[in-house]
Design goal:
One of its GO terms (molecular function) is D-alanine-D-alanine ligase activity. Pfam families: Dala_Dala_lig_C. By secondary structure, the protein is an alpha+beta fold. It folds into three domains: 125 residues, Rossmann fold; 128 residues, D-amino Acid Aminotransferase, Chain A, domain 1; 69 residues, ATP-grasp fold, A domain (Dna Ligase, domain 1, 2-Layer Sandwich). 36% of the residues lie in helices and 20% in strands. Strands 8, 9, 10, 11, 12 and 13 form a six-stranded antiparallel sheet that branches. Strands 4-7-5-6 form a four-stranded antiparallel sheet. A three-stranded parallel sheet has the order 2-1-3, with helices on one face. The radius of gyration is 20 Å and the shape is globular. It starts with 33 loop residues before the first strand and ends with a helix.
Length: 347
């Protein structure tokens, strides 16, 4: 099962080389001189988005590109009309950024942008749908159920939770079906802790994904579209003093990262292949980050995918790029160049 974009989004435009040159020639070639980075928004991940936006803007400015950072508010569309950027990079985490809606608006306006199109973004943003898609592509993912808050009111919470534990066992991971940065996510080891985890989850959304917790090595594999198709960057291993929650992700000290991850060469190739396959199956574009657990047998279990990976000083995508020996400014320039030329090739 592969998510497809509309005809515009499926055009096989030339892909960027590491220095940002797409290799296109002729009248359709458009250099990137002016970029608008969208950061902020009104989701729970606003502060992370702002930090990501500042980091990417600084890296792009270092390559000589004129960069503007703008929030998503009533002044944005007049600003875009005035500035007329070559490309927009949405670095919005959470709703309105990763759910495809900002892409819909930019396409309505005919503005080039970085990243996955609206339809594939919506599929990736919804964790159960993403899990179904990757299952169809032959990728393993922990067993799970999806339950709306309304069902607990109608059937009674405890009988439903007892059925969940009876079917999936313990430990479990409870998370909102939409959202990121581990907001509303709880690792549950005891059945008596499950009701509290559901309450925490429903504070961030009205549908919960409850999946069997897999013990193993937690890693993230970033993917970028390159000259020969999607390419996996080195996996980053995550070691924390507890749950890899919001605090552990964005406040230095609680988490150690190993980039590249401490994997055998065979398993490192395996996880890279899984991330690329997920990227392709979900119809993603430009860049993505897939979160995985490597179990005791060396199998990679898909957890979720991010179409707008964090770019802060502790984020996993920049660490992976640096582990690959890529200069962040050059890599980001290549990514924005691709965002322009993919649409130029379709005109």
């Amino acid at each position: 099962m592969t998510v497809t974009e509309d005809a515009t989004e499926n055009v096989s435009a030339d892909l960027p080389t590491p220095d940002g040159d797409t290799g296109t020639t002729g009248p359709d070639r458009r250099p990137v001189e002016r970029v608008v980075v969208l950061a902020g928004g009104l989701s729970h991940e606003r502060e992370v988005s702002l930090r990501s936006g500042r980091r990417v803007a600084d890296a792009l400015r270092g390559t000589g590109i004129e960069v503007f950072v703008h929030d998503v508010d009533a002044s944005l569309l007049p600003f875009l009309d005035e500035i007329k950027p070559d490309v927009v990079w949405p670095l919005l985490h959470g709703a309105s950024g990763e759910d495809g809606s900002i892409g819909d608006v930019l396409e309505l306006l005919g503005i080039d942008y970085v990243g996955t199109g609206p339809r594939a973004s919506r599929a990736a943003w919804n964790k159960p749908i993403a899990k179904n898609v990757v299952l169809g592509a032959g990728i393993d993912t922990p067993d799970y159920v999806t339950l709306p808050q309304s069902l607990f009111r109608e059937l009674g919470a405890q009988p439903v939770l007892d059925a969940v534990v009876g079917r999936l066992g313990l430990p479990l991971v409870v998370k909102p079906t939409r959202g990121g940065s581990a907001l509303g996510v709880t690792l549950v080891r005891r059945a008596e802790d499950l009701p509290r985890a559901m309450v925490d989850c429903f504070s961030y959304g009205d549908i919960a994904l409850i999946e069997r917790a897999v013990e193993g090595t937690e890693i993230a594999v970033s993917v970028v579209d390159g000259p020969d198709g999607p390419e996996a960057l080195p996996a980053v291993e995550i070691v924390t003093d507890g749950t890899y929650d919001y605090d552990a992700r964005y406040n230095p000290g609680r988490t150690r990262y190993y980039a590249p991850a401490r994997l055998t060469p065979e398993i490192a190739r395996h996880v890279g292949d899984v991330a690329v396959r997920a990227h392709v199956a979900l119809g993603l574009r430009g860049l993505s980050r897939t979160d995985l657990i490597v179990d005791a047998d060396g199998n990679a279990q898909f957890l979720e995918v991010n179409v707008a990976p964090g770019m802060t000083e502790t984020s996993l995508f920049p660490q992976a790029a640096q582990a690959a020996g890529r200069d962040l400014g050059d890599l980001y320039r290549a990514i924005v160049t691709q965002g322009v030329n993919r649409r130029a090739a379709s005109r």
